[in-house]
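Practice problem: predict the structure.
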Amino acid sequence: MAERTTVDITDAALTQAARSLLDQLVADRVASALTAQDPTLWGERAEPEASIRLSWTTLHKSSRPLIGEIEALRTDLRSEGIDRVVLAGMGGSSLAPEVITGTEGVALTVLDTTDAGQVADALEGDLERTVLVVSSKSGTTVETDSHRRIFAKAFADAGIDPARRMVVVTDPGSPLADLAESEGYRKVFQADPHVGGRYSALTAFGLVPAGLAGADVARLLDQAAGAAETLSADSPDNPALRLAAALAAAHENGAEKVVLADTGSGIAGFGDWAEQLIAESTGKEGTGLLPVVVESPTAPGFADAGTDATTVAVGPSVEGAAIATSGPLGAQFLLWEYAVAVAGRLLGINPFDQPDVEAAKKAARALLDNPQALTGTEEPSAVIGAVEVYGPVGDSAATGTLSQVLREFVDGVAENGYLAVQAYLDRLDDASATLLRGELARRTGRQTTFGWGPRFLHSTGQYHKGGHRNGSFLQITGAVEADVPVPGRPYTLSTLQLAQALGDGQVLADTGRPVLRLHLTDRAAGLADVVRAVQELTR
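Answer:
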């Protein structure tokens, strides 16, 4: 018997608050209209975008032909001894494949970074056994193009024909599709152009890299198909309508954050995928839902959540959870896609655009075009041990105490606001940076998010600029020991990484958001200093 997909609202007050919204969604036949891909559901302004972004509702059917194509290519690759899959992709092109393969326990090396160390580590893998999946909807993603160039040179230097080791996933007619054809890349998978990146888990973007790595993508589509009828029903028992109504009702009552904790779902890293879907779909026009992914249901932010947050258990319900969602991975993808799209209707926004994402990209490009702006024109406000401090530090610079610098900064976080930690580092070698989320949340009493840069720019970056204006931003950058040039481009990975950090920080500051950057002149020592300084904070 197939595992059921459910949404359990355990908070009685939230159930009551959501009831009228749920009844209205049923009366308006929103679920069936969404399944029928009705672009009028979000109003006249959203209709042009919605009309070309709704094919995800039937992907459990339309993606079936991919299964055979993926398996045939995987078989061919294996016959040549190629069994190591590296994925170059950002945002919607990498988050779903990572969840799928992590859940199934199959190996996939994901490059969603511009950190030179992390990319160098991927290059040190066995290139004789490696295929690179280059995944970009637009076909112009700068990080992904950089990875492609770097790997093409590495393959050629190793005496391997790069074209035979390149598999592309992109939209029809993109610059990447044209390049792949002209270069004779091994295979091009053209994704459905009527699906946005964050809704693309069940398109070629999610299925191709996961399937080539060995995940059972047919089962994933079966799981989604098993939930599709329930999710399209105009019924108060529809779990997607229940979830959307609960999230919107909570938002109306001041809970604009959604705290996600895994409670034994059996799904690896689901919160990271849901984070992009929620933040990029709803965080605009000064409103939205901020996803806060925490380590466990006992972590700060969940166990001690205040009235500004709704706690959601991904898996069985636990003490402290206002909502619990359950079901197999394919069904959970579809459940949350339906729920977030419907929540957009209730919030009065277009869930399919991302109007504030481009600003940080433009700022980074401007810095790349002006290398002088990246090489020392800005002096640190203070240098404390292995940490350079950039940004307003008040009187704390005179004390020489990093803890006081942080104390002054976090004291400025708005009441019921949030603190975003943005680490432009190596998420493998510098993994200890993730400790900062829980430590800061515990000591500030504020909801605290953590994102690896530039990965989060394709995820929560939209909310940071377009959502509720109550965030404060702690950037962490680090010195690079061994840089990696980007072939055919006038910059290295470290230059690109720093441009992305400074560009986003500039956009945030220009919109009145508080930004503090800590630059680690020695990564290991600097991270230890920062963690120690945070632990010295008192609430």
